[in-house]
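Re: [ENG-882] Designed sequences occasionally contain unexpected residues at chain ends

Forwarding the minimal case from QA. C-alpha cells:
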C-alpha cells in the first residue's frame, strides 16, 4: 500500500508526534481533505510545487493526491519533520522536506530553474513579508503562480481596486506585478485551532512584464508618499518625492486633487517613471 491510503488520519499524526499548535509559529492546521484538495485543485495543473509551512502535512498530502509531480516543503518546526518523513515514504521520490526558515530561503536556488509554483496555507505572522519578498525579486520571477491562504483582510488588500477602502501599497505592488484574484473564503472553524478571523485563498499569476515597466524602488517611493498621507490630495502628499507634484500630475493627465486611493496601478507606475 502506498500514497494517501497508507497514511494515518491527520489527528492521529498530530497526537503521535506531539504536534500541538504553537501560536508563535502561526500554526492553524487544516484537517479537512475536501478543503485541502480544493486548494490544491485551484492551483492545477500541478507540476513542481513549493509549499511553505507544511506542518503535519494536510495540504502536502492533498497536493500529492492532486498530481503534483514534486513538492518541496519548507518547514521551520522540527517537531513536524518525522510526520513529513512518513509522507515522503508514502509517495516515494515526490516530497522533499527542507528544514528551515522560509524568511531565509534562497528561493531561486531552491526552484532550480524549472517552472515552480507556490501553494501554501501561510503562517499569518510572516505571510505579508513573504509575499512582498517574492514580488520584490528581480523580474521575471522564478515562480509561475502563487496560490496562497491569507487572513481575509490581507486577501482583500491584495485584490482591492482603486476607490476601495482596502486599496493601498500592497494592492499596487501585487497588481503591478501580477494578475491577482481572490478564489474563496475559508471559515475560521476549518482550522485547528481556529484563528480569530476568516481566511481566504488568493491566486497571483505573474505578468510577463509589469505595466508600465518602472523601477520597483521608485514605485515604492511613490506609493509610500501617496498612501502615507492617504487623506491628502496627491498634489500635497507627493511633495515628499517631487519638487512640483502638481506639474507632474497635470502632465500625466492625473487630477492633482485626486487622492492615492483613487488612481490606478498604472498611474503609480507612470509617476515612478517621472522620478
Ligand atoms: N500547511 C499546514 C496546514 O495547512 O495544515 C500548516 C499551515 S500553518 C497555518 C503554518 C505552518 O508554517 C506551520 O506548520 C508552521 O510551523 C510553519 N511556519 C511558521 N513559520 C515558519 C517559517 N518562518 N518558515 C517555515 N515554516 C514556518
Amino acid at each position: 500500500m502506498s500514497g494517501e491510503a497508507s497514511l494515518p488520519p491527520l489527528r492521529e499524526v498530530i497526537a503521535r508526534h506531539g504536534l500541538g499548535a504553537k501560536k508563535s509559529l502561526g500554526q492553524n492546521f487544516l484537517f479537512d481533505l475536501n478543503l485541502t484538495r480544493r486548494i490544491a485543485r485551484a492551483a492545477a495543473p500541478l507540476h513542481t510545487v513549493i509549499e511553505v509551512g507544511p506542518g503535519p502535512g494536510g495540504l502536502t498530502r492533498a497536493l500529492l493526491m492532486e498530481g503534483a509531480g514534486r513538492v518541496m516543503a519548507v518547514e521551520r518546526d522540527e517537531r513536524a519533520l518525522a510526520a513529513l518523513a512518513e509522507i515522503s515514504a508514502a509517495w516515494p521520490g515526490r516530497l522533499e522536506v527542507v528544514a528551515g526558515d522560509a524568511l531565509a530561503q534562497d528561493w531561486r536556488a531552491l526552484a532550480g530553474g524549472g517552472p515552480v509554483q507556490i501553494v501554501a496555507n501561510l503562517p499569518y505572522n510572516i505571510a505579508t513579508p513573504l509575499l512582498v519578498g517574492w514580488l520584490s525579486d528581480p523580474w521575471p520571477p522564478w515562480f509561475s503562480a502563487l496560490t496562497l491562504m491569507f487572513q481575509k483582510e490581507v486577501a482583500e488588500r491584495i485584490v482591492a481596486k482603486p476607490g476601495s477602502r482596502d486599496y493601498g501599497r500592497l494592492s499596487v505592488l501585487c497588481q503591478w506585478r501580477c494578475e491577482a484574484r481572490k478564489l474563496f473564503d475559508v471559515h475560521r472553524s476549518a482550522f485547528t485551532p481556529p484563528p480569530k478571523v476568516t481566511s481566504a485563498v488568493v491566486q497571483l499569476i505573474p505578468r510577463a512584464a509589469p505595466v508600465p515597466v518602472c523601477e520597483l524602488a521608485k514605485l515604492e517611493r511613490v506609493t509610500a508618499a501617496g498612501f502615507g498621507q492617504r487623506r491628502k490630495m496627491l498634489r500635497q502628499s507627493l511633495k515628499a518625492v517631487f519638487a512640483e507634484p502638481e506639474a507632474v500630475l497635470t502632465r500625466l493627465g492625473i487630477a492633482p486633487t485626486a487622492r492615492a486611493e483613487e488612481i490606478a496601478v498604472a498611474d503609480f507606475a507612470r509617476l515612478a517613471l517621472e522620478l
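QA comment: On inspection the terminal residues look reasonable. The chain is about 35% helix and 20% strand. Proposing we downgrade this to a documentation issue.
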